[in-house]
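Review box. Two proteins, two foldings.
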Amino acid sequence: MKIGIHSMVWVGDWTPDAARHAISSSREAGYDLIELSAISPETFDADLTAKLLAENDLECSASLGLGPATDVSSEDPECAARGRERLELALNLVRDCGGKMLCGVIYSALTKYSQPATEKGIRNSQETIAALADKAAASGISLGLEFCNRYETNVINTTAETLRYIEEIGRPNVVAHLDTYHMNIEEHSMAGAVREAAAAGKLGYVHVGESHRGQLGTGSVNWDEFLGALKEVNYDGIVTFESFSSKVVHSTFSNDLAIWRNLWEDSMELATGARGFLRERLGH
C-alpha cells in the first residue's frame, strides 16, 4: 500500500518554487506519493517535476476535474473535443513524471448539472475514456474514475454506477476511484461499496477525505468501517489524503469545490496528523 497526499494541501499552483515546496514537504511528512493537481497540465514543467520526485524518493499520480468548457459528456462535439485534448495532456504529464495513475472527474465536468446526463452524453463520455485508456495502456498507466456526489457530476455518483460504466467500456486499465467524502453522501454502506469494487476486481484508487474536507477523524466519516473494509479485502493500492482549505487557493478549483472557509491553517500540521491517523489504522 502506498500512502499519498494531494498537492493542494501544500500549494495552489505548480510553479518551480511551488513544486519544490510540495514535493519536499510531502516527503518530510512521511508520504510515499504526491497526487498532482493536473487541472492545467500544460503549465507543468514535467522534467523538473520528475527530477524533484526522484530526488525526494517520491512517487506521483495525477488527478483533475474537467470544466463546462471541456466536458466530454457534453453533446457538443467541440466541447467534448476540448475535453479529450485536456485529458491527453494530463496523460502525457503522468507518463513524463513516471506516474502510473490518472484519476479524478475525467468522464464529465466537475460541476452542478441542471438535468440528468443524456444517453448521447454518456456515450460520448464512455467513448472518450475508452480511447484514453488505450493510449494510457501503452505507457502502463491506469485510469481511475472518481465518482462524485450529485452536486458535482450527473454521470456516476456511486460505486455500483461506476462499476457498470466501467463494464460497458471494457478496458482492463480503467478502475474505480473511491472517495470517502463523496461516499459519505451517496453510499448506503461504506464497507459494502469497498467489497463490491474489490469483488469486481476494480478497486483501483482511494481518496480519504473527511466529511467537511478537513482533518481526518474530526467529521462524520465512519473510518473504522471504511478503513477496516480496505484491510478486509487486502487492498494494496494507493490511498491518498485529500483536504482543502481557503488557506491554499487555486484560481478556479477552490471555487469549483466551494472552499469558502479555512478548515486548517498549517499544512504540515494537517499532513502529519493525517499521516499518523492512517498509519495507526492501516499499519502503513
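Next protein.
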Amino acid sequence: MKATRHAKILELIQNHTVTTQEELQSLLEANGFYATQATISRDIRDLRLVKVLSPSGIYYYTQSNTAPADTLQLSGDSVFMRSIRSVDCAGNIVVIKTHSAMASAVCEAVDNSNRPEILGTIAGENTIFVLLKTEHFADEFCAHLRELMKKNLSR
C-alpha cells in the first residue's frame, strides 16, 4: 500500500501544482487513497519532496533529484562509517564525534545527503554540529546514524 501511495504522490505532484499537505491529502482521497496528515508528512520526507518557488511566486512540492534518498547509507568500509566515534543529540542539535581531522569529510557526507530536515552543519577538527528543524527530526537522525554505526560494527 505504501509503495502504491508513494507512486500516486509522485504522479500527483508531477501533474498538479501541490502547495500544501492538505491539498495533497485531498488529491489522494480523490484517487482512493486515504491517509492521515502524519502519514502524508512521513511520505513527503521518505520521498524527499521539497518545496520550490514557481515563476509566479508560489511554493509547490517537487521531487528532489540532487541526491539519492539514502545517501548516508554508505558501505561499511566508507570514510564516513570508519570516521564516526559517537553520535548524541540535545534538543534539535545532533553532535557527531569523529576521529581527529575527519569531521570535515563526515560533514560533507551529511551535507550531501540533502535531507530537508537539516538546516545546517558546522565541522571542527573532530566534532560536527548538525542543526535540525525540530527535536523530533534530531532524534530520528541520531537514531539513523547510530543504526548505521551498529551495522558497520557487525561487519
